[in-house]
Known about the structure:
The chain is α/β, with parallel strands linked by helices. It is built from nine helices and seven strands. The radius of gyration is 17 Å and the shape is globular.
Amino acid sequence: MSSTSTEPTRHQVWKMFDRIAHRYDLLNRLLSFGRDIAWRKILCKNLPEKAALHVLDLATGTADVLLTMPRHREVALGLGIDPSGGMLRHGEKKIQDQHKTDSLFLVRGDAMALSLPDNHFDAVTISFGIRNVADFQAGLREMHRILKPGARALILEFSLPPNPVFRRLYLFYFRHVLPRIGGIISGDMAAYRYLNQTVETFPFGSAFLECMEHAGFKNLSAQPLTLGIASLYIGEK
């Protein structure tokens, strides 16, 4: 795939993920210096402490979050939804390799229009995907709808570091180094330009908590991770 691929939009972003699916896991580890593993562990440790959880993971990609969950909580059913068939194929192979086909399932779908019943899941998660939803406020409302009363939403997303010196260093890496490395390894420079552009324009911190509140969530909190490079947002129905 040429590094001059067309810049994606949020409506067509699944096509971009189809193109880079074969290098997605490798680049996650490389470009985050392995911090993505720690961030997913923190998310999973904040799942409700109850037996036989039913969990929905949106923008599930290659199923890394779903496969991390059983190491920290008892998951009776983990359903992953993503619009990218290419990503899901890689995720399905990982689930098979780890012998989790009895409890973890992947389907292609749209976070803004979930074909799922109301009040059904104990938790819903989404990692580094909410900013890719074309109407993320509609996605938040769907997350709220499918949760049981009192159930929990866990949203992991990139944010901007509050320290001005570290933010400048981070943005230099994000704007100039990350797209070049990502483009060379994946063969798709546009995909990794899209990454930094969406992160810099997406609401974070208190602004994102307000978005969750507008969707109906309560008992809200935000936990900055790795000096604010990422944040874990938690809300309840």
